[in-house]
Design brief:
single chain, seven-stranded parallel beta sheet, 16 helices, globular
């Protein structure tokens, strides 16, 4: 039964999980009868709302979570709304969605039912938007389980998304959220829905996979970026700075560890500094102070996540100028040799020189096998052989080439990655998919099989030849 409590943080009624599920199933039974045009109007409306209100939503996210940058979140809200809707527009997801006449097959899309979407503090606007769009595009209902530090954002979005649903004739309770959330409530939700999308920390993702329900989760990011010898060094570094500093480094696909040719190492450091956005030190004492602040006891300090470079410097007792968007530090090694080779969800990155390109790939692989295997890597190169060598040798689900990784790995208007906020990491990361989560992952597909009338059946001799 629903309780009568009103959440002090969201203004929504605090409803127990079984009641949320019951309401969602009623709503979904109605919604799955909607035509493609009605579904798409709602999905477009959700993206357009975030796009049109990007500034307000960005400020709301920073105010509640205390992390990230408003200006970058505005760009993220607009960019993700634009690219995700563009990727979904015109795609069939209801009824007959295609056929293969040569194989005698007709494909029919069916909803999964109720989607439980666990959303993170790092992306409290675009992740609910994205996963909500995917769920509704495929005829499902969705229930969000937000991070406690982003509950107000999610509750607000739920209310606004439901206004869009209702404006297009949709049912009550198609989009809902847990309020006054807890780990216990989230776990209860995951065990009761039909499919789980878990975007968050490793413990939450592991819990999703242990829920007994089909689940999609993500693994840790720790993106190494290789600068090849044949590229414009300044152009590559400008892109790395853009990616690594974006939203104070909280994007899981942001560049973490730079591998520069040994003969260009000093020039690379100078080019980083010349951007006016990067503070560099090779003073061993200062580097160690920053290691200790970012990784006290060898574990990432939650108090540096999404904070500014100046704030992190202050925590280490170092005067980093407010103008700095990024702290660059020389690592003493790769993999387990230096804690700076781990994932840093803040605007701190490391750099080391390499000898041969294969040496660079080996160093990148050492980092990934220590943390971040299955996620992403980046390379700036015009050498197709080297690009493919990195793609073959590195244990990643995506290799981002000649782009700012943080803003491109999740799909863009100029690459072929599926537009998303949830990046699967395959078996390396303990995930069920090694690609970007897309709407297709939230629908069942029935196959109608017919006799292939002109099929020539091979003889046993031909089969075993």
């Amino acid at each position: 039964m629903a309780t009568a409590m009103i959440s002090k943080t969201s203004g929504l009624t605090d409803v127990e999980v079984p009641e949320l599920i019951r309401r969602a199933r009623v709503a979904q039974a109605t919604f799955e009868t909607f035509a493609q045009e009605q579904v798409d109007a709602i999905v477009r409306g959700i993206a357009k709302y975030v796009y049109d209100n990007a500034e307000m939503l960005a400020q709301m996210a920073v105010d509640e979570s205390g992390i990230g940058l408003v200006a970058d979140k505005v760009l993220k809200n607009k960019g993700k709304a634009r690219v995700i809707w563009n990727s979904l527009k015109g795609k069939k997801s209801r009824g007959v969605i295609g056929e293969d006449p040569a194989a005698g097959l007709v494909f029919v899309a069916k909803p999964m039912g109720v989607v439980g979407a666990v959303t993170p503090v790092t992306n409290p606007i675009v992740t609910p938007m994205c996963n909500g769009m995917f769920a509704l595009k495929t005829g499902n209902a969705v229930i969000f389980a937000p991070h406690p530090q982003a509950e107000q954002c999610t509750a607000f979005l739920t209310t606004e998304f439901m206004k869009i649903v209702k404006a297009h004739g949709g049912p009550d309770d198609l989009v809902q959220t847990i309020v006054n959330g807890s780990v216990e409530k989230t776990q209860e939700l995951m065990k009761a829905v039909d499919v789980v999308v878990a975007t968050g920390g490793a413990a939450m993702v592991k819990s999703a996979y242990s829920s007994g329900r089909p689940s999609y989760g993500v693994g840790a990011g720790n993106v190494p970026v290789i600068i090849d010898r044949d590229v414009n060094l300044k152009d590559a570094i400008d892109k790395i700075v853009t990616g690594a500093s974006f939203d104070n480094g909280i994007i899981c696909s942001h560049e973490q560890f730079v591998l520069a040719p040994e003969e260009n190492y000093d020039e690379a450091v100078e080019l980083f500094e010349s951007t006016g956005k990067v503070w560099f030190t090779d003073d061993p004492a200062q580097v160690q102070k920053l290691r200790d602040v970012v990784f006290p006891g060898g574990r990432l300090n939650k108090d540096v996540v999404g904070k500014s470079a100046a704030t992190i410097g202050a925590l280490a007792g170092i005067d980093v100028p407010e103008s700095a968007r990024l702290i660059l530090l020389p690592a003493s090694g790769v993999g387990v040799e230096d804690v700076l080779a781990k994932e840093k969800l803040c605007p701190v990155i490391a750099i080391v020189p390499y000898t041969t390109f294969q040496d660079a790939v080996g160093k990148a692989k050492a980092n990934l096998l220590m943390e971040g295997a299955g996620h992403s890597a980046a390379v700036h190169s015009n050498n197709e052989e080297n690009i493919r060598r990195a793609g073959v040798d590195l244990p990643v689900s995506r290799l981002v080439v000649n782009q700012a990784s943080s803003t491109s790995a999740g799909g863009s208007l100029t690459n072929g990655f599926a537009a998303t906020t949830t990046l699967g990491c395959g078996s390396w990361g303990g995930n069920s998919i090694s690609e970007n989560l897309d709407y297709k992952h939230l629908m069942n597909v029935s196959r109608i099989g017919k006799v292939i009338t002109d099929k020539v059946v091979p003889t046993d001799e031909e089969i075993w030849a």
